Amino acid sequence: MRFDTPSFLTKACEIFVQELSFRAWMCANSHQRKIILDSDIIEVVASMESYSFLNHALHTDRHKHHFDPLLMPAKKLHHKFKNKPSTSHLIPSSQHLKPQPIPEFGGYFPCVSISSPLPPTDGCHIPLTLPCLPAEEAYPLLPTTITHAPIVTSMGFIMNNSSSNIATLGVTTPLQLPTIADPNILNTCCIGTIASTSSYCVGYGNPSSASSQDGGAEIHYPHIPTSLQFPPASPVVNNSVSTSISIIELNHIQSEVAHIGNAVHLHSDANAAYAIDPEATINASDDQHQHGNLVAEVIPTINVSGDNKNINWDEVDMADDSLLINFWENVMMNEDPATSLATASTVDLVVFPHDMLKHKGFHHEVLDDIDSTAAHAI
Amino acid sequence: MRRAVPDNGKIAKDAKESVQECVSEFISFVTSEASDKCMKEKRKTISGEDLIWSLGTLGFEEYVEALKHYLKLYREVSIKPPSVFSQSCLLLHSKVC
After folding, report:
1. ipTM
2. Between 20 and 30 A from B24 (CA), which of A9, A176, A278, B94?
3. Is the pLDDT of residue A115 over 70?
4. Which InterPro entries does the entry link to (chain A) (predicted)?
């Protein structure tokens, strides 16, 4: 054989690797780093026209490597968040039950349509805690309301926050709740989570604070309009006191706040259903702004009553209190006739029966788990 | 990969994996191009010349020159002792990098 072609190709690959490594090293140097990260590789690939064929390969690789962790239990995911180097850790957000547009991160993925890398974690940790978990303590009356917790999709987390959001909103409240992509869960979660704070948020004119977020997390909960403000609730203890329900519209952030109570069950179950660890901590960078659109699709209906009464959020006109009152009355009708909504100073428990939860197909074992947790909380 | 990086530099594991993916893609890319050329010319064997041609076509012209030297030295190696070959390779590396 005159010439060994495989060894020739091997040599070509060797040269390719060396060039790629060298350029990546230059890139790392430009960032004052001595460690070559995969972000450097991506940067090199993006900068070289002759490497354009690698864009697809890299993105495919990213999805393969970064979606798998999302299938892991949430606790493992939690550890991954903690252990991974900051700049190299990306949290893809594209996998979810319902497709959602995910904003691009920086300039690294010009061709990426879905990946949304986690911003470098410079230290802003957003603890994700279920409202039911800190049940021992009353929900603090915080001036901040909407906590932009990572949006947990069915497959994983979508970091949806911005530095300004974090700074303004006060990340560390125990009420931070991962917003779940599933609209059904989403609404209820919002309901579950934001209740106590949101009331205060409203009280403090939160819309301004939240809206001040520069393109920060945008949580689109379709059509939960304007500010229905109920009087701020007394500190809400899980499963105990009724809460106020307020609907806050913050720029693009609309969240419906309701009583946490058993809604936590719903939320928890939702979390569990999506393998979300409510205690997962997500590192968010203050440097990054992500214009995340939380699930644009919100559940059109939510089965909140035992008789399968569907509530179409799109159709519910929450323009005024009376409608909301009516809504909740309908919701509560089969659950607790005694409860009445929206009195000036009282808040009613929204009871989400387990039956309803089961109807929604939540994992029973998780339900039991949550129940036991909630029971401790009481 | 480490040869291209100074001694004080480190390479993240993710970076290595990414580079692996890139190289795999590179091989596929170049080989498929060379394969297409061979099919057009109704040949069944991909030669080094085909690879050089495909590298040039795909925008890796700088590789072409270095690999031509390598090809030349490789052929000489079959005659000359291996020490010359390794030295020539190092020379090529330095030229490329």
Report:
1. 0.78
2. B94
3. no
4. Histone-fold
